[in-house]
């Protein structure tokens, strides 16, 4: 049986939905009100009286809305600070990198100054808007997955049995969200370079080339993309569940293997980059074998480190289970 009392679970469900500045006062007020009301009931049946009092107080989500004096929001106060931190990270770290890449590609193509500036401004506006929109969608879905009652419960009267188990604050959610969004952007970049063929051989007016070997799309690129997609999904599941379990970590390891092993293989065989792109980009210089060896080692080391980290984070949950 959980060591968290019914009252504490009820108070937590109320205060997590209101602004941080009100939480301590509201929590103290609720605990006092519940305790006083229970004490005024039948002293010999404290547990039953507590359930009756909480039932009469009603759904904590509705009570929280009254305390906050506002309707239910798209992203609740429990997730909102994390949402802001991830949004700031994306707009100040990821967006500048994406913009710089787009500008550099235009410069390599020999585009004029006006075109380069237009590309930079357009990338900031379009990619920035996409980041804000998709991040909001993800957090809204997570909010409803972890903080909302199921539709069938809402159709029936609320009772203390609907209270979820109290879970501690999830500080690792920021990193998981950032990792999911970063990998999703990587999937988009791989697909974009295939469809747009952004590199122009010989500068402006030259033939358009893919950066990655077009032959990958006949085989190895599919497990790489599938593994990346699996990693994205599992990171989002981790955010919704507020932690890793051994089972989720095992699935994550499988997704990482599906991504990293084929990638390491094509790098080892030097079949990752488009030969026409390398010939035009390198000129008389030849990419040394040591570059590919180092790239293989980095891919395997980063992937293995991520898997080990997930299993370490899953240990406390396994121990409590």
Automatic annotation (TrEMBL):
- Name the domain of life: Bacteria
Region called Disordered, residue ranges: 151-171
Keywords assigned by UniProt? Membrane, Transmembrane, Transmembrane helix
Coiled coil residues, start to end: none
Q: Where are the transmembrane segments?
A: 86-105, 117-142, 173-192, 220-237, 249-268, 291-311
- Which Pfam families does this entry report, sorted A to Z? HAAS
Q: Does the keyword Cell inner membrane apply?
A: no
Please give the name of this protein. Uncharacterized protein
């Amino acid at each position: 049986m959980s060591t968290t009392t019914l009252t504490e679970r009820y108070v937590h469900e109320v205060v997590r939905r209101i602004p941080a500045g009100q939480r301590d006062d509201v929590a103290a007020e609720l605990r006092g009100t519940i305790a006083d009301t229970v004490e005024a009931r039948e002293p010999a049946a404290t547990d039953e009286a507590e359930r009756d009092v909480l039932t009469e107080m009603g759904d904590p989500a509705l009570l929280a809305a009254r305390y906050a004096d506002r309707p239910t929001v798209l992203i609740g106060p429990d997730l909102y600070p994390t949402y802001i931190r991830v949004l700031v990270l994306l707009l100040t770290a990821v967006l500048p990198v994406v913009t710089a890449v787009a500008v550099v590609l235009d410069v390599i193509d020999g585009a004029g100054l006006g075109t380069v500036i237009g590309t930079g401004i357009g990338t900031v506006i379009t990619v920035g808007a996409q980041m804000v929109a998709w991040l909001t969608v993800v957090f809204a879905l997570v909010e409803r997955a972890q903080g909302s009652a199921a539709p069938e419960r809402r159709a029936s009267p609320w009772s203390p049995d609907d209270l979820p188990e109290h879970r501690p604050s999830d500080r690792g959610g920021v990193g998981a969200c950032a990792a999911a969004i970063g990998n999703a952007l990587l999937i988009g970049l791989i697909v974009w370079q295939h469809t747009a063929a952004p590199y122009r051989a010989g500068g402006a007016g030259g033939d358009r080339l893919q950066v990655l070997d077009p032959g990958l799309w006949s085989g190895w690129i599919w497990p790489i993309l599938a593994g990346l997609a699996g990693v994205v999904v599992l990171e989002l599941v981790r955010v919704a569940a507020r932690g890793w379990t051994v089972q989720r970590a095992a699935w994550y390891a499988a997704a990482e293997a599906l991504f990293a092993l084929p990638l390491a293989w094509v790098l080892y065989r030097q079949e990752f980059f488009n030969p026409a792109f390398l010939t035009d980009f390198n000129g008389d210089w030849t990419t040394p074998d040591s570059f590919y060896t180092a790239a293989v080692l980095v891919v395997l080391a980063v992937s293995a480190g991520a898997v080990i980290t997930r299993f370490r984070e899953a240990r406390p949950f396994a121990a409590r289970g």
